Amino acid sequence: MDPEMNDQFELMPHSGEPSSLSWRIAGPTPQQWLAIKDEFTHLYVGENRRLKDVRAILSRRHSFNASEKMFKRRIADWKIHKNYKAKEKELLAKRVKECVEAGHDVHTISFRGRPLKLDRVKRQYRSDKRFTQVWEQLSQSPDDIDTEEIRVKEESPSTATTRSKTLLDSSTSPDYSKILTNDTSDHGLLAMTSNILPPNELYNVEVALFHTQEAVQWQFTTFTPLKPRELQARFPDTIPEEVRSGQTDQVSAFWLGLYRGFDAIQTGKADESLTIFDKCCSMVQPLIHAAPLQLLSCLLVHFATPWNGMAALEEHLLSFIHSMVESSLGEHHPLAVALHKITAAGVRTHLVESMMQMVIQGYGTHRKSSNSSLFALRVDQIDMLRKRGSFQQAQYLCQQLLKDSQSMSPKRYRTALAALGRVYTEQKEEFAVEGVAHRILQLETSDSGSTNSSTAAWACDQLASICITRNDFASAEQYLLRAVRMSCASLPHRGPSAASIITRLDTCMRQQGKDVLFDGTHSNLPLLSQSLVY
Length: 534
What we know:
Blueprint: H1 3-9, H2 30-46, H3 51-62, H4 68-77, H5 86-101, E1 110-111, E2 114-115, H6 118-122, H7 132-138, E3 152-153, H8 157-169, H9 176-179, E4 192-193, H10 200-221, H11 228-234, H12 241-244, H13 250-266, H14 270-282, H15 284-290, H16 292-302, H17 311-329, H18 334-342, H19 345-366, H20 372-387, H21 391-405, H22 410-426, H23 430-446, H24 453-469, H25 473-489, H26 498-511, H27 525-530
Parallel strand pairs: 3-4
Antiparallel strand pairs: 1-2
Helix pairs in contact: 10-18, 10-19, 13-14, 13-16, 15-16, 16-19, 16-20, 17-18, 19-20, 20-21, 20-22, 21-22, 22-23, 22-24, 23-24, 24-25, 25-26
């Protein structure tokens, strides 16, 4: 039952009692509940106060009166989770140990975007005598903690170097509990080697993945996204026209913006690329309030491999986005921490695939398999693996996506085929690409109820390239003309831009001795569309 209706039942009189005493406290309005939501969450979860204490505080501060039953309904409706699961406690306890071992302040650790409740994880290692002093320190105030009091066992530099190299060479995640030496003290104090702590790079990877998992849980538990109308009202100057008109969504516009900006700078159009990137930066804040995990996935795809020769621009874009997230959600928010870690290219190369998998698993757990966002993320994952040269894994995921998309719309199936085709293209499998491209065009021709111009344009472009290598310029011309028309009819796509198709079409027609119908610019695209020959 809706919480507002439940609250109204609190107004009904008790049968059999005098009417002057039978009315309960009137329930607050939805607007009043919304006004105290953030403060209630901070008091109840952030400060770990009891519900009756929070009720008293809100009553005293804001004259907000509601029964405990009303509050419990709202807690369920807002999906506020106060308790930790067993697996979460175990992972958090491990993180506390690593934090102490590295000499960091454990009170800076956050979980679900809020300070970690240290008392909830203490019992996980209460029986482990090696960490007696660690847990004793946790019971003190932050100012009293001195990690340097932990006794350290000396080790020769040669042994330390060998162990560190073993960690770096390992392809699996390190088990830090096995790195510690056995307890040789008589008092059960922590004994560990000063030179065999996890290398900074591996430690940062672990921290980033942990916070990524927290960010995933946060989006599907406590995060409330702004709806399109709310976004346009709150950020009127940063919503692109194509998004306001309903041609595309905010995430797709941002994805395509980064794609077009990178394409422009690669082709020497520096001024145009900076304009595009500036527009992308203006879309970051709305995305933080609408689809934060999809914002993260866009960055993982586009920055999966270093931008050769453009390290400064790459770092500037990532740093700007991180600062925007930090400003909107807080310095210690898990999404902000995860973004902070991936700004370092050396760490990012170890992170992107695992972070993307965490995002997809989160969506897969909380959304139906046919969900459009989940489908788009799976395509992005394949493209990311392709860019990184992980072709075997990319092909495996393509086969899974093709199988699942058969029960979805025909457009989804063609999109999955195109993802597979891009993997074949990267591997220079000409005959496989040709077969996939023909299949896409056949399916689009037979599907009169749906169009997928971007995917079909990619197929035409690939077939044209194959024809040119075979000196079949007449067939190449027809494919390129069809691709140009599709590029005019829709937003830019993942394949080559309309300008690059025009340039190739110009070359193709000159090879046949034909008159060129255009000057290499977009001004004559309508003429090209009218001259289309199938």
